[in-house]
Amino acid sequence: MNHDKPSLGNKIQSTLGPFASKVNGNIYITSVRDAMLAYMPFTFIASIFLIIAFFPIQQVTDFITMVLRTEDASVWQEKLLYVNNATLAIGGLLVVISLAKSLAEKLETNVLQCVLTAFVSFLLLTPLDAMEAGTFLDITRVSAQSMFLAIIVGIFSTVLYKKIEGKGIKIKMPAAVPPAVSGPFESVIPSFLVITTIWVIRLIIEALFNSDAMTLINGTLGIPLTMLGGSLVGMVVVKIFEQFLWFFGLHGTSIIQAVMDPIHQVLEDQNRVASVAGEIPTNIISMSFRNHFASIGVVGAIIAILIVAKSKQYKEVGKIASVPYIFNIGEPALFGIPLMLNFSFLIPFVFANAVTTIVAYFAFYFGLVPIPTGLAQIPWTTPPIISGYFVTGSIMGALLQIVLIVIATMIWLPFIKVADKQICIEEAQ
């Protein structure tokens, strides 16, 4: 049996390898991933100000109000929201800009002009609202709620620009004209045709559907994707598939995040908007849920090793891997135990995260723990317990993470015991 396992692993890896290579090599998927990664730092920056503005301990809020000598907390909280309005509140704009840049670089075309063209195209599809004094742009229309529109526009406008440019449809300047001068002139026709196409698309949407692009896309594409990515079943399937890829040496997180990040970020932003408005968030599954509750699994292997390991190998691995895992960095465990392609750990490695995901979901569903507020969109490297407290604004979030870590450890314990015993025998020989 043992001799068959490596061949089975190699067979599965050879099957999944080309698929993973195509996904990781697809310029559109990688551009979406690059855009989401570029957007993430701003979620963290805004979260710092939002945490201060809506600190989960009322005494802290009262103390700040007293020190600043304001009438009430809303006076200084409003000032802190300036940063939120310039970052998270324009998430769609940030994504369309960064996606167009990434894709233009991969297509080897005019990066700056593609970014500006995508930016204008995105705004062109965003209708203005009327008021007595004139018209204005509702900032919610360019927030993370427009994430799907931003992705589509960023890809479509950049690809169209590249195709037009590739046909040689541009103003050709004499060779003696410096590139800094000729560049803008050569981009006039491609940008004009892209923007005209987007304008026609807007007119068609208004005429046929009496709607706007964001509403149409969120209704036809966003809602089904959000229902799938925001459901317990969808989240469990995602975690199992992600761990399955990791087991066979493929970067599961990198492969699934380009698809799931926009969905979970939209859900996260809905929670944030509700929290800022003083309402109770309703989306259990979001970016915070995925990063800080559904990803608790492999840490159980490290803790199990620290508890029961008697072999020299596992004792050393436990020491080395435990410190990075405080910050959710699991590579030392993956390669040191090792976990990848180690069929002794197939079951806990693939399914432990799914179990903790289910437990966490029902803890939120039954109201045992407050749903993540969306105010603290902290990095996935934030240590457990600390992250649980901040994303939920409650000590119950930290306690839930402790429970999930205990559950993950219990799942891993029997498998670690068996493997450690075998290693002890080998070391004795």
Describe this structure as you would to a colleague.
The chain is mainly alpha-helical and 429 residues long. The protein contains 19 helices and two strands. The chain has helices at 4-25, 27-53, 58-68, 73-86, 91-107, 111-124, 147-166, 179-186, 188-209, 213-229, 232-247, 252-276, 287-292, 299-308, 312-325, 331-336, 346-365, 386-392, 395-428, and strands at residues 129-131, 134-136. A two-stranded antiparallel ribbon has the order 1-2. α5 runs parallel beside α7 (147-166) and α6 runs parallel beside α9. The chain starts with a helix and ends with a helix. The model is unreliable at 1-6 (pLDDT under 50).
Task: Sum up the structure in keywords.
single chain, 429 residues, mainly alpha, two-stranded antiparallel sheet, 19 helices, 2 strands, disordered N terminus
Number of separate strands? 2
Specify the helix fraction band. Answer: over 70%
Strand order of the largest sheet: 1-2
Radius of gyration: 25 Å
User: What is the H/E order?
Assistant: HHHHHHEEHHHHHHHHHHHHH
Number of helices: 19
Task: Measure the end-to-end span.
Answer: 22 Å
> Which descriptor suits the 3D outline?
globular
Q: Structural class, from helix and strand content? A: mainly alpha
Low-pLDDT parts are 1-6
Average pLDDT, rounded to a whole number, is 89
Query: Beta-strand percentage?
Result: under 5%
